[in-house]
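Continuing from the previous page...

OK, I double-checked the sequence for Antitoxin against my notes and this is the correct one:
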Amino acid sequence: MEAARQSPRQYNVHEAKTHFSKILEAVATGEEVIISKSGEPVAKVVPLRGKVRRTARGSLTAPVVLHDDFDDLSDDPGLAEAFGLDAEGPTE
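Thanks. Re-ran it with the corrected sequence; updated structure tokens here:
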């Protein structure tokens, strides 16, 4: 189940000017921030790139399965030829 998305933080113009560095830090970590004037939202500050979520060992969510014949080119002569290979191995 996917985590519920939080609604963006909202700052009025005065707070935004006072806490601009804090807002930029939040945006840099992937958050969106709304700036309001007189209680009405007028701008949204968003990250230029989406947040990349990675695990300690990489970004794959499932294990990679390599079959015993993953590098067998014998059934695809066009591919083997393109890489200078034949059924016995590399050609010289």
